[in-house]
Design a protein that fits this description.
6 helices; alpha/beta; 9 strands; binds S-adenosylmethionine; single chain; two-stranded antiparallel sheet; 27% helix
């Protein structure tokens, strides 16, 4: 999977893309990353990328020209495969289902906003899909793009230790994951549930399913 990251702050990604499994996946060629900075396409002498919003209001809006000229060089605008995802609170909710869908692509272009966001004409000019990673407003689109990368990269064959380790995770079957425990069996009087020590696989599976249902009911009644 190739990710093209469109960002004013490419250095923001240095650590998260070079740590843990992501670093290994990069070395193994499972994922690759390229960066494009709209500031490089700005033509004025200050390399401006933002301007005041028409109609007034606080903050600055990302100017169309540097962004469109950047994106026209990237997939899928130049006829290559892939999807163009624009990170914005005013977008389609990012879910595990959408992560699975996007993980099938060979290439994703992720556009990170800053300031008050994008000139709305961007969505008329290019096949851009607005995506929102949660109902809270972040400072910039880089953290949102990273959420999309993390969720889709780990679905690539070979990324996780065992490819099936995503099967019972939260959201994969409409439920949150059951509670997990590890050693020690007892810590300051808090014991691991006896059923998990029983070795009885069918009973453990039944208990886990009931726990997943209960957890989903209490934490996500919607
Ligand atoms: N004025 C915008 C609004 O109310 O929709 C918020 C702009 S936000 C401060 C700056 C950038 O952060 C956005 O352009 C977007 O790229 C990114 N961003 C913030 N929250 C996000 C979210 N929940 N999902 C996706 N991107 C987000």
């Amino acid at each position: 999977m190739r990710y093209n990251l469109v960002t004013l702050f490419p250095e923001w990604f240095d650590s998260p893309l070079s740590s843990g499994l992501m670093d290994k996946a990069r070395e193994a060629g499972i994922v690759e990353f390229s960066f494009a900075n709209p500031r490089d396409k700005s033509t004025d002498r200050h390399h401006s990328v933002d301007d005041r919003p028409y109609g007034g209001g606080p903050g600055m809006v990302l100017m169309l020209d540097p962004l469109v000229r950047t994106l026209r060089e990237l997939a899928p605008c130049n006829g290559r495969k892939g999807r163009l995802i624009v990170l914005t609170p005013a977008g389609r909710p990012f879910t595990q289902q959408l992560a699975r869908e996007l993980a099938q692509e060979e290439e994703l272009t992720l556009v990170c906003g800053r300031y008050e966001g994008f000139d709305a004409r961007l969505f008329d000019l290019l096949p851009a899909e607005p995506v929102c990673v949660g109902e809270a407003v972040l400072n910039g689109g880089e953290a949102a793009a990273l959420a999309v990368i993390e969720a889709t990269a780990r679905l690539q064959p070979g990324f996780m230790g065992k490819d099936e380790s995503g099967d019972e995770e939260s959201f994969s079957n409409g439920l949150l994951e059951y509670p997990q425990y590890s050693r020690p069996e007892e810590w300051n009087g808090r014991r691991v549930p006896e059923i998990l020590l029983s070795g009885h696989h069918a009973n453990i599976a039944k208990w886990r399913h009931e726990q997943a249902l209960e957890r989903t009911r209490t934490r996500r009644p919607d």
